[in-house]
From TrEMBL, chain A:
One MF term in the entry's GO annotations: proton-transporting ATP synthase activity, rotational mechanism
Signal sequence bounds: none
Membrane topology label: Peripheral membrane protein
Purpose of the protein: Produces ATP from ADP in the presence of a proton gradient across the membrane.
Name assigned to this protein: ATP synthase epsilon chain
Domain named ATP synthase F1 complex delta/epsilon subunit N-terminal: residues: 5-83
UniProtKB/TrEMBL annotation, chain B:
Protein name in the entry: ATP synthase gamma chain
Alphabetical GO biological process terms: proton motive force-driven plasma membrane ATP synthesis
Main location: membrane
Subunit field text: F-type ATPases have 2 components, CF(1) - the catalytic core - and CF(0) - the membrane proton channel. CF(1) has five subunits: alpha(3), beta(3), gamma(1), delta(1), epsilon(1). CF(0) has three main subunits: a, b and c.
Length: 132, 291
């Protein structure tokens, strides 16, 4: 793999990954995107989904619940609100997140109703994608 | 003059106290290390977050459509003071220093004719300012049950504050916490979180032109509430480290004082014992002479 870039994944509580990656698939708010080296500088928000990183040692994937990604010439950094390696995600954990999202959608005001409903749908899609 | 028995008891009691303070000091030292690690681990996120948000705020901030969280409500009549302290005492001046700073700020604002509302995080801060500002309390966040402060806790506090802001309950929010410098020094700090105040973005970061997905405004509107949570989380972690640092040095002092006291009491004990012996001798000798 000749062409790689720096990839950082950080959550508020700790830094989860910092490595050389050849491509990063990001669940952007407006749709999935793949960042490769020399991608145009972009900042995008994340929706709940699966982030996967292609690196020399193989592909790693993480379930993220939200946050944003910054892509520039030096590399890609993802600032996730919560990020868990997909292998460590348990059904209880995801159900808890869905319950929280559902409660938020329930109590959302008219303005934020759509966003909350989308968040809930994305959470459920995330659960389906993880197939647990 | 206390009897020998009394002195003995007092020495024993101070020795027990010294054991306890010594143990507390060591526990605080271990917790401090953990708290510092947690603060360290959160730093990359906070730094990057602020860099991105600062850049965005600089480019969108000037326009009229800027979100209220950034530009403010247009007035600064009602202030919300978020006083963050520890749940436990016995940590020197830690809690009272934060409370003192908050109280001074509240007085200053009241003197300027502003309305002050207080939200407390941590039991000790609530107790400390209840007497002076009890009427302006709007809420209290209890973290007694929380062992390790996580981002979730910060999010809950942020959600509470944001709901109040959306409800028009206040115009400006300031958080009070202690910044950790080292074990002997923690600086009580006031930091304005709403409207968001940013240090000027660095030239380097601002020079890159980013594509935004979705729009700049949408991202900003999404990030600002997270920014509040991030700042609160950072403050909680700093506070955690400061609390343990303050407790460690307070307990170190207490241990040393107990040691001094034991020395003093021991000297007094030995003197009285000697006095008793001398007395007895005098009695025997004078009794023998009288015969």
């Amino acid at each position: 793999m000749a062409n790689t870039m720096q990839f950082d994944l950080v959550s508020p509580e700790r830094a989860l990954a910092s490595l050389q990656a050849s491509a990063v698939q990001i669940p952007g708010a407006d749709g999935d995107m793949t960042a490769m080296p020399d991608h145009a500088p972009t900042i995008t928000t994340l929706r709940p989904g699966i982030l996967s990183v292609e690196a020399e040692g193989g592909t790693q994937s993480y379930a993220v619940t939200g946050g944003f990604a910054e892509i520039n010439a030096e590399g890609t950094s993802v600032l996730a609100e919560q990020a868990i390696p997909t292998g460590d995600v348990t059904a209880e954990l995801i159900d808890g997140l869905i319950a929280t999202a559902a409660a938020a959608a329930e109590s959302a005001s008219a303005e934020t109703k759509d966003a909350a409903a989308k968040n809930l749908a994305d959470m459920e899609a995330l659960k389906a994608a993880l197939s647990i | 003059m206390p009897s020998l028995k009394d002195l003995k008891n007092r020495i024993d009691s101070v020795k027990n106290t010294r054991k306890i303070t010594k143990a507390m000091q060591m526990v605080a030292a271990a917790k401090l290390r953990r708290a510092q690690e947690a603060a360290e681990a959160s730093r990359p996120y906070t730094e990057r977050f602020n860099a991105v948000l600062g850049g965005l705020a600089a480019s969108v901030g000037g326009s009229d459509s800027a979100p209220k969280l950034l530009s403010g409500t247009g007035s600064d009549q009602t202030h919300l003071l978020v006083v963050m302290t520890a749940e436990r005492g016995l940590c020197g001046g830690f809690n009272s220093n934060i409370a003192k700073l908050a109280r001074a700020k509240a007085e200053e604002l009241t003197a300027a004719g502003k309305t002050v509302k207080v939200l407390t995080v941590g039991k000790k801060g609530r107790d400390a300012i209840k007497r002076d500002l009890g009427d302006s309390f709007v809420g209290h966040v209890d973290l007694t049950e929380v062992k390790n402060v996580g981002y979730d806790n910060a999010q809950d506090i942020a959600r509470d504050i944001l709901a109040r802001f959306d409800g028009g309950e206040f115009d400006v929010a300031t958080i009070f916490y202690a910044k950790f410098v080292n074990v002997v020094s923690q600086i009580p700090t006031a930091q304005q979180i709403i409207p968001a105040a940013f240090e000027a973005a660095e030239d380097e970061g601002a020079s890159t032109l980013y594509d935004y997905e979705p729009s700049e405004e949408a991202i900003l509107a999404d990030l600002l509430p997270r920014g509040v949570a991030t700042q609160i989380f950072a403050a909680l972690l700093e506070n955690g480290a400061s609390e343990q640092g303050a407790r460690m040095s307070a307990m170190d002092n207490a241990t040393r004082n107990a040691g001094d006291m034991i020395d003093k009491l021991t000297i007094e004990f030995n003197r009285s014992r000697q006095a008793v012996i001398t007395n007895e001798l005098i009695e025997i000798i004078s009794g023998a002479e009288a015969l």
